[in-house]
Hints:
- The complex is a heterodimer of chains A (about 290) and B (about 900).
- By secondary structure, chain A is of the alpha/beta class.
- Chain A folds into 2 domains: about 50-80, no CATH class; about 85-285, von Willebrand factor, type A domain (Rossmann fold, 3-Layer(aba) Sandwich).
- Chain A has 9 helices and 9 strands.
- In chain A, strands 4-3-5-6-9 form a 5-stranded parallel sheet, sandwiched between helices. In chain A, strands 1-2 form a two-stranded antiparallel sheet.
- In chain B, the strands form 9 sheets. Chain B has a 7-stranded mixed sheet, sandwiched between helices. In chain B, strands 34-33-35-36-41-38-37 form a 7-stranded mixed sheet, covered by helices on one side. In chain B, strands 6-5-7-8-31 form a 5-stranded parallel sheet, with helices on both faces.
Amino acid sequence: MSDPAALRGGAEALAAPLPPLLVEAQRLAATVIMGEHGRRRPGHGTGFWQYRAALPGDPARTIDWRRSAKSDATFVQEKEWQAAQTLLIHADGSAAMRFASSPAYPAKGERAALLTLALAVLAAQGGERVGLLPAHHPPRRGTAHLVQMARDLAAADEADFGTLDAGDLPPHGRAVFLSDFMGDLAALEAALALAAAREVRGALVQVLDPAEETFPFTGRTIFESMTRRLRHETLDAGELRSRYLARLAERKARLGELAQAAGWQVVTHHTDTPAAPALLWLWGALSMREVA
Amino acid sequence: MPVLGPLGFAAPWLLVALVVLPVLWVILRAVPPAPVRRRFPGVALLLGLKDGAQQSARTPWWLLLVRLLAVAALITGFAGPVLSPQTPQAGGTGPLLVLADASWADAPDRDMRRTRIAQALGDAGREGRPVALVLLTDPPAAMPDFADAQALAATAATLTPAAWEPQPDAVAAFAAALEGDFDTLWLSDGLARDSRDGLLAALRAHGTVRVVQSPAPVLALRAPLPAGGGASVTILRSTPGPEADIALAAIGPDPAGVERVLASATATFADGTTMAEALFDLPPELRNRLRRVEIVGQPSAGAVALTGDTLARREIALVAGTGTGETPQLLTPLHYLRQALAPSADLIEGQPLAEVIPANPDVIILADVATIPADEAQALRHWVESGGLLLRFAGPRLAAAGPGDDPLLPVRLRAGGRSLGGTMSWDSPRKIAPFPDESPFHGLHLPDDVTVTAQVLAEPDPDLSAKVIATLTDGTPLVTRAALGQGRVVLFHVTANAEWSSIPLSGLFVQMLQRLAVTAGGAVPDAQDLAGTSWVPDEIMDARGVLTRTDTAAPVTGEALATGIPGPGLPPGLYAGTDRRLALNAVAPDRVLAAAQWPASVRVEGLEQTQEMPLKGWLLALAVLLMAADAIGSLAVSGRLSRVAPVALAGLALVAAPQADAQDATAYALQATDRVTLAYVVTGDARVDEMSRAGLAGLGRALAARTAVEPGAPMAVDLEHDEIAFFPLLYWPVTADEPLPSAEAYRRLNRYLQTGGMILFDTRDAGMAGLGDTSPEGRRLQVLAAPLDIPPLAPLPPDHVLTRTFYLLHDFPGRHAGGTVWAEAPPPDAAQVEGVPFRTLNDGVTPVVIGSADWAAAWAVDDSGAALVPVGRGQAGERQREMAIRFGINLVMHVLTGNYKSDQVHVADLLERLGQ
């Protein structure tokens, strides 16, 4: 590896996916903006909400003197939001997410990363702070941060199935977890419990390959996980289909239960379908309008 | 060998293994197919699932059948099946003598004979009979030892016939040496021969004799003979058959020295005859070059007739002294020469010496030519030294020429000569003395009536006697000879006409000329001529009629050559003597072919037999094919065929990939260099590429309309494959997701920039980024341009030459206005000569211009010339478009003219100096 030309070639190949991914995410985000005409953009936390009469205990510097000067009473200006919302996105980058049953479909991880960035673009345009879970960098505003996010997303995870560390969830924020949720659900359970406790609302996106949904296998087969740590041998894969599908349905139901308990929403996204509807759904689900 | 119908088996017990096939069927049926390994994240959901009760997938029956067939083919193949096996031929038990004539007549079907001998050896080996192998062209002197048949197999496979026929005395000696009891298999060459009967009787005394003889007739050629202007060839066949046409080819070197067919002819055997004649009508030039005549498609020494030099006629140039005026016919010096030489040589006459020498004749005869111009003498001497024979005759002019040291004369001549009644008076005409032993004329008969009345005399030099080859009775030289280089100069001290002597009137004259090899060729020398001579084999012919040059073969005596019958020490071929090349042909000149006749009691077989056909290889190949089919079937069953097939097909496609690239590249280069051509880099985004094309087309229109530059249609450049060196300007729109060029493409780009090319980068983002990384295109540009060899850049200074190469410009708008344009930074020490920084690098042409104004969109026009993209608003927008076009024109002018406009500032100074 002492050949600098080879090194640079490798580095360029590594760096290459970033800008195109970001560009694609921006294009994707643009479709959502086009599709949601008339949506009121939330303010930057400085938007006027209402005046109310100052009460004892209000600090003197919060009094709106201009309004108060028009009458005898003193008024305080209430802002709609004091601060921008924080959106945290967890995109599963584990080995399982690198699976694509056909070269015609993107890998699950690619689709998850695309949705993540597109969501981040939308949020950044809306003035929200965006960050990734697990957090390499604190959530920030602005488009420059997107490049950093794209770079962080490219980091690969060598675990078989994704785990979730929700320790960084800020209270009252929004969160999106994108994964295939094929691994142990305990971490998710814990994260959702924590989210519910911190009043974080959000959405779960289960990204699945069509093959995982239909199980189109027959004959004697050894199934291996992407890292080959798990294996299962069967003499007739076709015979397993119904039971596999039952387990998958059970898992989806379990996800639904967990989400419902935390006040989250769930969607299953397949990599053979376009990303735009999923993004639209996500944006709607996350819509920053306060849900009473 | 056990035989089963038309099939025999070498190892029949192996067939027992076929019994296991049903067992194999059961086993294969029970074993499930090999598992497919699949990566599948859903495995997490599968863990713990149990298979249904023994519901394993089974191998389909047709796949099993293919496998069983493959195994069956393997077993049968190894059992050694043979189609139509040879049943042993009514054989005996004792030793077997395999006898082959092995003459040239064997050569055409040599391989069949080898096979037949190998088959006889194989049969004998199976029956355990010892075998001896004897070739009659090279028979052993004593009874050969019988040996194991296998040991002889290798010899039999390389058995080579000889180019001659069995020698009668050798055959007789062999017949006398036979002893013991043995059977004989005699492979006859089919030609009748006197020695056959004796040998056959001797062989039958020792055991039974079987004869193998091909019924096909043997063809042969006799040596070609001169006939009229060409050559005639006699063709022989061994059996009188129906009418038949035989194609013949006359072969010799072409002027370049390459052997080729000079002429073709057809000989027709009349019904029932064994002899036919073919006539080649050849011009002299071709006839001289003729080397051999062949029967087409008959690879045997008998079917090739070498000509040697019997057909070649020497070219002789006759040159007489000039100025003789109206000499009567019989007195011209050349008349007798012409009469003597014309029948056997081609004459070149009536031309001056200067034109004769370049024709390179074999002999030049100068009759009484005294003075030769210096340059012609030089050429003539050169010709002699490289092997020519110069024959000179004396005469009044030569006699009058006086003493001199002419190298083209063998001796120095005394002035005046002598004649009967002259100063050196003769009392009577002299006669010719008998020729001495060492003289080439030795042995010629001297007619009594030949007298000499006048001659030129040689100066008595010390080496005179060595040069004299004929004298008069008084000892004065008549003919002298001297070597000059590789050639010879011969002087007759008399005239070539009957003026000075009666020699030209006698037959002696012709004989002397022949002896001097003036008329070499013609008739084949007879035994008397050849006696005592020695001949070196030059080219030797093998049994198949192929000539091989040799320089190692031992010389043969003329007597042996005279017999005309080749033998072991006298292979047919070309033999070189002192000045002739004689051909010895496999077929003697008087040979008549006849088919060998055998007594009715001898069994005669044809050469051809039904061949054993071993099927082992075919069956094994079938097994391999079936296994391949099984592999494909297995892949198909396990669902992996679709993954493997593209790889296999791609491999095939790679193998069969046509090579049409070179032609495309040439057409591309022609298109690019036919006119000045603007080019744009293909980004992969169809809309951007189309806009680039339309933009450059619009710029091209403007250039053609306003300037002397008339560009061709813009060309798209794929950096990976296309050569860019042809283009003065490369427009490179930057898109955010443009793929990075390869290292090789970057090398080309850097070479392009170093050698004066220019790239116009356009980020098309209206200066949002300002060369920073805040727009995707800006970031992409940084990545794209990083490996490029670009000098330091700076915003275009207002005094840059780009602002005035054609139009005077202050800003450089495209579809967007107001962006910054970057170009190579002025050198830090750029002298401000009247406000113009000068640069010398790249002839002052900046290698890159980087901007963001989306110029292509501003330039773009459709086919009718109408602008494609709106620019700005109203009149101001049109002005902006005009400025964009002006910028494009300035840019192209800058690329094409370099710093020419910068130099214009000196014009005033230069004019002022010129004025002084």
